[in-house]
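Fold it.
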Amino acid sequence: MPVIKLEVGKISNEQKSQLVKEFTATVVKVTKAAQQGVYVFIKENEKENIGIGGQLLSDK
């Protein structure tokens, strides 16, 4: 059971759907895993929950 975890900023449902389809297709192609066994988890992160260089992205 291949598992892919992706953390991104806010993206549309259309973008999520495309990512899931393309990640799944690539995993199936490379590993020969069954498509039904590929899991893709997408976590969206808000700018106020991300810090880079000692500063929140929402403050930049």
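Helices lie at 13-31.
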